[in-house]
Specification:
The protein is an alpha/beta fold. It has helices at about 15-25, 35-45, 65-70, 90-95, 110-120, 155-170, 175-180, 195-205; strands at about 5-10, 30-35, 50-55, 80-85, 100-105, 130-135, 135-140, 145-150, 150, 215-220, 220-225.
Length: about 230
């Protein structure tokens, strides 16, 4: 049985939203609709969608803020941004906020449909795994929880994102640049010790009262999370 794609349309123009819903339905795609940013954030957080189609200019919460908050929560559903703001700087801003594609208005529905189908095919890639495990440490992206040896470990949002990225790349060295871009959404070096501080806090939470140590500093390179019970010399 073929599973139909399901998307969320976040658009405050009711006429435009109705047109999109009808066009997607005729293309065999199921859609839900949210008319403002807060509703869109709630629906995208509480339900599973293949793709989000998000207008940039929205009441209550703008589209970029919506996307940024979703990414902060660890929700990586592909997002296509629709906007009347179509300059290069506008598109770059949208992509850096966490969008996966950006289509300026006015647009042809055939192009929008093709882009949505491409984004929909990304689902099921390794990055969509809901649970990461390293040894006896477990991170559940769906429930936004972390446990070690069955004991729940409360983390701050940034600590969760940091651990999520490290566990996604378990066994590999993660550089400071990678962390700045993927955890802090910085595309420059702020020249602060923000990474060191957060890694130190994270290490104390996931390793206090637990053995063996999992999070290590690789001098001159970055950080690595790995289950290695052989003591290092």
């Amino acid at each position: 049985m073929v599973t139909r794609m399901k998307i969320l349309i976040v658009e405050d123009d009711l006429e435009a939203a109705a047109y999109l819903a009808k066009a997607f339905r005729e293309a065999g795609i199921v859609s839900d609709h949210a008319s403002d940013g807060e509703s869109g954030l709630f629906m995208a957080s509480e339900n599973a969608y293949d793709v989000l189609v998000v207008d940039r200019m929205l009441p209550r919460r703008d589209g970029l803020s919506l996307i940024t908050e979703l990414r902060r929560r660890g929700i990586h559903t592909p997002v296509l941004i629709l906007s009347a703001l179509g300059q290069v700087d506008d598109r770059v801003t949208g992509l850096r906020a966490g969008g996966d594609d950006y289509l300026p208005k006015p647009y042809a529905f055939s192009e929008l449909l093709a882009r949505v189908e491409v984004l929909g095919r990304r689902k099921g890639t390794p990055d969509q795994d809901m649970v990461y495990r390293v040894g006896d440490l477990e991170l559940d992206r769906l429930s936004h929880s972390v446990r070690r040896q069955g004991k729940e470990i409360p983390l701050q949002p940034r600590e969760f994102r940091l651990l999520e990225y490290l566990m996604k790349n378990a066994g590999q060295v993660v550089t400071r640049t990678m962390l700045l871009e993927n955890v802090w959404d910085y595309h420059f070096d702020p020249q602060t010790n923000v990474i060191d501080v957060h890694v130190s806090r994270l290490r104390s939470k996931i390793e206090k009262d637990f053995e063996p140590p999992l999070l290590r500093t690789v001098r001159g390179a970055g950080y690595m999370i790995k289950d290695d019970r052989i003591a290092e010399a």
